[in-house]
Amino acid sequence: MSNSSTPTRYWHQLDDGRLQCDLCPRACKLREGQQGLCFVRARENDKVVLTTYGRSSGFAIDPIEKKPLKHYLPGTPVLSFGTAGCNLACKFCQNWDMSKSREMATLADAASPQMLANAASNLNCRSIAYTYNDPVIFHEYAIDVAAACHELGVRSVAVTAGYICPEPRIEFFAAMDAANIDLKGFTEKFYHEICGAHLQEVLDTLIYVKHETDVWLEITTLLIPGQNDSRPELEAMCQWVVENLGPDVPHHFTAFHPDWKMRDIKQTPTQTLQLARTVARQAGIRYAYTGNVHDAIGNSTFCHHCDELLIERDWYEMGRWNLSAGGVCPRCATPLKGVFEETPGDWGSKRQAVRFTQDN
Fold first, then answer.
1. In degrees to the nearest 10, what's the CA dihedral of 216, 277, 295, 267?
2. Domain annotation covers residue 1
3. H or E element: which one contains 200?
4. Using CA atoms, how far apart are residues 102 and 88, in angstroms rounded to an integer?
5. C-beta neighbour count of 10 within 10 angstroms
């Protein structure tokens, strides 16, 4: 095995001698020396191993709002990290340099779970985010990091596409405190042709996280002009969310910019995001947001009952904080769903690169 390889549990042997990875619905079938589509899970010595355990593509301290999470410890810093590879094949990937990387050189020096937990605690980060690429593919590493963080009072945030099989899904989300799950579109055609995946498995994950765990859940949909931004599709998506997840799951509609294999499509107009937010609110979603644009109304949080401004934001900068004790509206005392403290953090919009050393 390579130095950073670690054995995994979710696989079985087929009659023809190949090993099938059972972590995600792709069910990659591997002969000796082959890698799965994700690149980081491979067959070595007749086992399926994770080849990137303890390796990261970089670290930074971000505002929690950048994950994006609007209703989870607002204003606080989060230590973000990822590895390499991905189990989806999105043609529009906005982090393709990491998620599509098949080069081990992308990965920084080794960072054990305990080193990461110590770094997050010493840097006064309230949480750690598994992001940049999808954490389900470094399942074992993410879970071990979360366990080490929990011992130091640091919470764990998964930023994921939710493309994972039922059994490992239970173990993965049991380790997480909050998650933002991408709902990339709402047609099987979009998922199959643009993402190389299937819609139903993602919907199953959303239902599981909302109804079977205590994980705080938010959703993000990246709107791509002419691909997944039609009003009928948005209406169908929002109706499904309300009917299956309830009205209180925050939904972020974010702007696409030309990247990876979709450089011929223009950036999403702000008006498209604002329309999506309107459609969501009309469907009954109480907390709908625009993202990746300067839109103070679309970035801010309002009471769903009386429309009082509760948390003012523009991009990742927080303005007025107008929550009463207990996280309720000061005008009508309606509770705001989420994980809030008496006062918000003051990290602001800055992004701080972290050079990882043994001393962190």
1. 100
2. no
3. helix 199-212
4. 14
5. 18
pTM: 0.94
Domain that holds residue 26: 6-50
Radius of gyration of the chain (CA): 20
17 & 112 share domain: no
Residues 305 and 346 reside in one and the same domain: yes
Both 163 and 33 in a single domain? no
Does residue 198 share a domain with residue 63? yes
Q: Which contiguous run of DSSP H or E holds residue 43?
A: strand 41-44
| Identity of residue 217 | L
Residues 52 and 99: beta-carbon distance below 8 Å: no
Name the domain count of the chain.
2
Helix (H) or strand (E) holding 147: helix 139-151
User: Mapping DSSP to helix (H, G, I), strand (E, B) and coil, where does residue 283 land?
Assistant: helix
Q: With cut-offs at 50, 70 and 90, classify the pLDDT of residue 99.
A: very low
- Taking the C-alpha atoms of residue 243 and residue 352, their distance in angstroms, rounded to an integer, is 39
Q: In what order do the strands lie in the sheet with 29-30?
A: 11-13, 19-21, 29-30
CATH number at residue 301: 3.20.20.70
Angstrom distance (rounded) from CA 138 to CA 135:
5
Q: Which of 311, 306, 228 minimizes the C-alpha distance to 298? A: 311
Percent of the chain at pLDDT exceeding 70: 92
CA–CA separation, 102 and 99 (whole Å): 9
296 lies in a domain?
Answer: yes
